[in-house]
Write a structure and sequence with these properties.
The complex is a heterotrimer of chains A (308), B (341) and C (357).
Chain A: H1 2-29, H2 43-53, H3 59-71, H4 86-121, H5 126-140, H6 143-157, H7 169-199, H8 202-209, H9 214-231, H10 234-251, H11 257-266, H12 270-298, H13 300-303
Chain B: H1 23-27, H2 36-45, H3 48-71, E1 100-103, E2 106-109, H4 110-113, H5 131-167, H6 169-183, H7 187-197, H8 202-229, H9 232-239, H10 244-280, H11 292-301, H12 308-335
Antiparallel strand pairs in B: 1-2
Chain C: E1 3-16, E2 19-32, E3 36-40, H1 47-54, E4 63-72, E5 75-76, H2 82-88, E6 93-96, H3 110-122, H4 126-139, H5 145-148, H6 158-170, E7 176-180, H7 188-205, E8 208-213, H8 216-222, E9 225-230, E10 233-239, H9 240-245, H10 250-257, E11 308-309, E12 315-316, H11 332-341, H12 346-352
Parallel strand pairs in C: 3-8, 3-9, 6-7, 7-8
Antiparallel strand pairs in C: 1-2, 1-4, 4-5, 9-10, 10-12, 11-12
The chains are: A mainly alpha (308), B mainly alpha (341), C alpha/beta (357).
Chain lengths: 308, 341, 357
């Protein structure tokens, strides 16, 4: 377990360094970035840039400065929001995004689990087909299409829930549902497949041969073993959630990181783009790490070592 | 025992003549044997959802090529006097294609108020461009992006995964460590950064999507080849002196083809989604080039007054995505009956 | 001896994509208290399906018991509700599976997996369950049982795991133990240990065992009585001596003939049964073995042979036993065995006269 952990951690750090370096060279070398178009900047911004990044230093030195700054939490200043530090902007916006992401993840995982388990237990019945139809739709309908329609019908036409902004729990309902749809669908499909796989396992037959009732077999022997592989898709799910927040926050005017990211793209606010990119990458990498550790904890074959 | 004393039934004695046994007949395999592809096709044919999906994809593909010609209108021609006309099809008025839209509380027939004689089947956008032509033009762009991205993924992924698995040992080890580092990269963010560097456009989007897109494919191919490599028929071919090229092209690739095709079919809707997503957040194709994503983005802006501008391209993209996903599911079941659920 | 389990005209079918497979076609046999009955046959002969049907573990769909009775202590198991059947499984009839590597739940400790049955059927929990579990682990010969309780299956070897599976089966002192090829997946030395263990347990507990196998060596070692299955039917049954030294069915001859013996002349080919078993999607008319049977007669292709009684314990389904059938000469290996070990039997005497009845 110790070795496993160390290995995972190393990959996480390596990946992050790769992304950070890529980001740096992008900022530094590419046409269109503020470093190459100094005439577009105000004198004040130019001073800050020179001061911070040593624009006239040789490349390796600038790279070092950038990396050191980054690890100290200094991601530069925004060119649009009155030269405010990017770190401050991110901190301000974390709250709504984290809440939205967490709500959607919990809703999606629970609904997906339920749908997947029930579909597998009622395999090849109309319940199964219904659940799988919902999940195909959930995977196929892009979240922004679903969100737009939800906003139009539930918010505008029926006036049942707030159309936009982030003010009360009621305001969070539509964005959460929109964001969780894809998660629900993916988890339902995955869990169903795993459950069906487990159904044919010898240890399930043995559990039946012990005379256990259906409930114990389902919950103690099947669901637990089916869920272990399902943990692995929490990584990709996080990526999907981050992606989702970009459009969902835009549609529902949620003052979160996704909205900051998208608006910085349209405004060519490069430092903010880079800062949020690094932040999202870090979140994603940490989530993958957590998933790996969780897998190790839940699966005794990894926790206790031995043949897998 | 009573049974022992029971009177045996008597039969015609000719029945008890010995029969000359034909050894070949005993070894004959009964039943017609199907090869892998025939077998898969037979199974796919029985999957109604997959066949329906295949038909829908074919229809949408044909429309994306010939659709604009059917209406006889240019997808780029603007006409301010004919802007924002709702869909109207003669004979389909009952289904909502009546040219009437609700503005505020009132129902208005825009064709009458704007004095337009001809019918626009899907209506027109804010610049008076024909939505029918634009939607099919956009579908063509989306399909092209999806197909190209999937093909590049396959080429890169199969090569990488194939080399990694076929060589094994240290080469495999190093190549897989690289993959492990790359899988930690959130692909969308990489795509966005890449698009920021290059001019937005079809090529950029395709390239950006393939930067990390091939990883999944390479893992599948590697897994499959590693499994095959140690199977008896490959060892047998090797023992018989088959060359590496022959091994790869005659034994390994054909047996991996099912996996590749399934993955390819899942990649296409993924790429279509990404294009639409990028266009929606303003990173997609530059106007006036239509794609399903840009059309949805434009439609979203008019959602509150002219919902058809969003509903029409959304319906097409949802149909495409559902069909590709269902067809991919069907293919997976057909190629790998063990996974049939 | 008293009959504990009686299978009457059992039929099991699987409804598959390609059609209905008649996996078991009219199997009947009795199991007596404390005895070991071996069911032998090649892969796909329906022996495993028969054993799973007794436990009502045939997955439905696609499988289904289409006809027949399984009488356990006078009750027909086929007619029991699922709830009633759950009470029979594990308590009255228990089962050991073929592959110990996959038949234990990888995420549950050994203790929990054994104690589950104890709790379910005997209401044992806590210390009582632990005490009984330790007894069971000792019974199946697991060294240092206390330390094993908290372990997971992947921490044990294949042989140890099979002992755990046996402990699970024995937990509630079942009256019938079904062992479905329990040693096939194990190394030869471990195989012998497990077989010894089963024999030992049978002596201690008096449980009746149905032993499913394709290995005639194991049969000779374990069984009191033997039933031979082919293409979903029982084609010959008798005591272990009758099957080995006085076999009557050409298929049994083939099976015994294909078993290598150290005394064999190694320059000769080991006799094999030509061909493959029939496709049970479309079972052939007549005797299913006829196309592979070099003694086949015209009637074999037209009419299914009934079970012909040979002695009180021995019967076989082959037209060769019909009075009208010509006398035939069994393969030399069979003849040799019969004359060597059973020179006084009716079978051996008829052989000396130049053929079978």
């Amino acid at each position: 377990m110790g070795r496993y952990l160390a290995q995972r951690l190393t990959y996480g750090v390596l990946t992050f360094l790769l992304i950070a370096s890529f980001t740096f060279f992008l900022m530094d070398l590419l046409p269109g970035s503020p470093f190459q178009n100094q005439e577009k900047l105000s004198p004040e911004q130019l001073t800050i840039l020179k001061d911070k990044y040593g624009l006239n230093d040789p490349l390796p030195q600038r790279y070092a400065t950038y990396m050191v700054n980054m690890f100290q939490g200094d991601l530069g200043v925004s060119f649009k929001y009155d030269s405010r530090p990017v770190t401050d902007l991110i901190m301000e916006r974390i709250g709504p995004s984290a809440q939205l992401g967490a709500q959607a993840l919990i809703l999606g995982v629970l609904a997906g689990l339920l749908l997947g388990v029930v579909a597998a237990l009622r395999h090849n019945t109309s319940i199964d087909y219904g659940a799988m139809f919902i999940s195909v739709i959930g995977i196929s309908v892009p979240s922004f299409v679903f969100a737009s329609l939800l906003q139009y019908y539930v918010g505008v036409k029926w006036g049942a829930l707030p159309v936009a902004f982030w003010e009360s729990p009621a305001h969070t309902i539509l964005p959460t549902i929109s964001l969780s749809l894809g998660v629900t669908a993916s988890i339902a499909r995955f869990v169903r497949t795993e459950m069906l796989e487990v159904t044919g396992q010898d240890y399930v037959t043995l559990a039946k041969a012990k005379g256990l009732d259906g409930q114990s077999i389902t919950w103690k022997h099947m669901v637990r073993n089916a869920l272990i592989p399902a943990i692995t898709i929490l990584g990709p799910m996080t990526a999907a959630l981050i992606t989702g927040t970009f459009v969902i926050e835009k549609i529902f005017a949620v003052p979160g990181l996704g909205e900051l990211f998208v608006s910085s793209i349209t405004q060519n606010d490069y430092t903010v783009i880079m800062g949020t990119t690094l932040f999202f990458s870090a979140v994603f990498i940490v989530m993958i790490l957590i998933v790996d550790l969780l897998y190790g904890v839940v699966d005794p074959r990894i926790r206790l070592g031995g043949n897998k | 025992m009573a049974e022992q004393n029971m009177k045996m039934e008597q039969y015609d004695s000719s029945l008890f003549q010995q029969v000359e046994l034909n050894e070949q007949a005993a070894e004959r395999i009964s039943g017609k044997s199907l090869n892998f592809w025939q077998d898969a096709w037979m199974r796919l044919r029985k999957n109604k959802a997959a066949i329906m999906s295949l038909i829908i994809i074919l229809i949408l593909s044909l429309l994306s090529i010939f659709g604009p010609m059917l209406a006889g209108r240019d997808a780029y021609e603007q006409s301010i006097t004919k802007a924002k006309l709702p869909p109207k099809v003669t004979g389909l008025e009952w289904a909502g294609f009546d040219g009437v839209s609700t503005l505020g509380e009132k129902e208005i027939n825009f064709y009458e108020t704007k004095k337009v004689e001809e019918n626009y089947w899907f209506g027109t956008d804010h610049l008076g461009r024909d939505l029918w032509s634009r939607v099919w033009e956009g579908t063509r762009v989306s399909l092209f992006i999806g197909l190209m991205a999937a093909i590049i993924d396959v080429i890169v992924g199969v090569t990488y995964g194939g080399i990694s698995a076929y060589n094994g040992g240290r080469v495999d080890n190093i190549m897989q460590r690289i993959v492990e580092v790359l899988t930690g990269v959130p692909n969308l963010i990489l795509i966005i950064l890449f698009i920021l560097i290059l001019e937005p456009g079809i090529t950029t989007i395709i390239l950006a999507m393939t930067i990390t897109g091939w990883i999944g494919m390479s893992r599948l191919v590697r897994g499959q080849i590693l499994k095959l490599k140690n199977q008896e028929f490959v060892l047998a071919a090797r023992t018989l002196g088959a060359s590496s090229t022959r091994l790869i092209f005659k034994h390994l690739i054909p047996n991996t083809l099912g996996t590749i095709i399934i993955s390819l079919m899942f990649t296409i809707p993924g790429a279509i989604f990404f294009e639409a997503f990028l266009s929606f957040i303003g990173l997609g194709l530059a106007p006036p080039q239509p794609s399903l994503g840009t059309l949805i983005n434009e439609g979203y802006r008019e959602l509150k007054t002219f919902p058809f501008l969003l509903v029409v391209p959304s319906t097409v993209i949802v149909l495409l995505m559902v069909s590709f996903n269902m067809l991919a599911d069907g293919l997976r079941d057909a190629f790998d009956p063990r996974l049939r659920r | 001896m008293e009959t504990i389990l009686s299978v009457r005209d059992l039929n099991v079918a699987f409804h598959t994509f390609a059609g209905t497979v008649q996996a078991v076609r009219g199997v009947s046999f009795d199991l007596k208290k404390g005895e070991t009955l071996a069911i032998v046959g090649e892969s796909g002969s329906g022996k495993s399906v028969t054993s799973k049907a007794i436990m009502r573990l045939i997955p439905n769909p696609p499988g289904e018991i289409t006809k027949g009775e399984i009488l356990f202590e006078g009750r027909d198991l086929v007619k029991l509700s699922d709830k009633e059947m759950q009470k029979v499984r594990g308590r009255d009839i228990a089962m050991i599976f073929q592959d110990p590597m996959t038949s234990l739940n990888p995420t549950m400790t050994i203790f929990k997996q054994i104690a589950e049955g104890l709790k379910r059927h005997q209401g044992l929990t806590g210390d009582a369950a632990k005490k009984r579990t330790l007894e069971l682990l000792t019974l199946v010969g697991i060294p240092n049982p206390e330390a094993r309780l908290k372990q997971y299956p992947h921490q044990l070897s294949g042989g140890m795991r099979q002992r755990i599976v046996i402990a699970i089966a024995l937990a509630c002192n079942p009256k019938v133990l079904i062992a479905d090829e329990p040693t096939t997946a194990l190394d030869v030395t471990i195989q012998a240990q497990i077989l010894e263990l089963l024999k030992d347990i049978q002596q201690k507990t008096g449980t009746a065992i149905i032993f499913i196998t394709h290995d005639l060596g194991v049969v000779a070692n374990m069984a009191d009585r033997v039933a031979v299955m082919y293409a979903g039917k029982l084609i010959e049954k008798g005591t272990v001596d009758e099957i080995f030294y006085e076999p009557r069915h050409p298929y049994t001859w083939g099976l015994l003939g294909s078993m290598p013996r150290p005394s064999d002349d190694r320059t000769l080919d080991l006799p094999a049964i030509p061909g493959t078993p029939p496709n049970l999607l479309h079972p052939p008319a007549g005797d299913a073995f006829a196309p592979r049977n070099k003694y086949a007669m015209k009637i074999d292709f037209e009419k299914e042979p009934p079970m012909f009684p040979i002695s009180e314990t021995h019967e076989a389904a082959t037209w060769l036993l019909h009075p009208q059938a010509p006398a035939v000469e069994p393969p030399p290996a069979i003849r040799e065995l019969a004359l060597k070990y059973r020179p006084d039997s009716a079978f051996a005497k008829s052989l000396l006269k130049g053929g079978q009845v």
